[in-house]
Amino acid sequence: MTSPHEAAADLSPFAGSWSLDPSHTSIVFHTKALWVLDVRGAFRAIEGSGTVGADGSVSGSIVIDATSVDTKKKKRDDHLRTADFFEVDTHPTITFSLANAHPKGAGTVELSGGLTIRGATRPVTLLAHVSSTDDSATVSTEFDIDRSQWGLTWAKLGAALKNHVVINARFTKS
């Protein structure tokens, strides 16, 4: 297998089924308000799984609880749950569905799939770092997202439509 800090250049050593460990997974975001104020928040992952075939093919998903949005400001969090943003009464989850993974070098993988927010799915490609042991793997990625692509266009003057997202997801071999 690979060392505890590097993923293989090909994915076949990871063959098998993997389950997300929500208690060791973090999903955080930050954006700007009034052009200068940094707003940070987090979501909880509910579930996730992945399968790596003997040929290195992959599939999987991560489901995020949209109702769990937490910026440490109740009034803002309540607003984020409304139809202006995540519309959690109708769309309580955000889902990333993995379709392909391509190794890009030691410990780096390009992940392609669909990100579903408020019922709209858009393609995304993420560059991720993978570290592993014999029975666990942590997938870490940082990316910028333009929330308007998913219909989240409400903004006060000076609010950014682009958000920076950081995900650290731990999977255990099933």
Structure notes:
The chain is mainly beta and about 170 residues long. The chain has one domain (about 10-165): Lipocalin (Beta Barrel). The protein has 1 helix and 9 strands. The chain has one helix spanning about 75-80; strands at about 15-20, 25-35, 35-50, 60-70, 95-105, 110-115, 120-130, 135-145, 160-174. Strands 1, 2, 3, 4, 5, 6, 7, 8 and 9 form a 9-stranded antiparallel β-sheet that branches. Strand 6 (about 110-115) and strand 7 form a beta hairpin. The chain is elongated. The model is unreliable at about 1-10 (pLDDT under 50).
What's the gist of this structure?
The protein has 174 residues and is mostly beta strands. It has one helix spanning 74-80; strands spanning 16-20, 26-33, 37-52, 58-70, 93-105, 108-117, 120-132, 136-146, 162-173.
Mean pLDDT: 88
According to CATH, the homologous superfamily is Lipid/polyisoprenoid-binding, YceI-like
The structural class is: mainly beta
What is the beta-strand fraction? over 45%
| Count of DSSP H/I helices | 1
Rg computed from alpha carbons, rounded to a whole number of angstroms: 17 Å
> Main β-sheet: number of strands, strand sense, barrel status?
9 strands, antiparallel
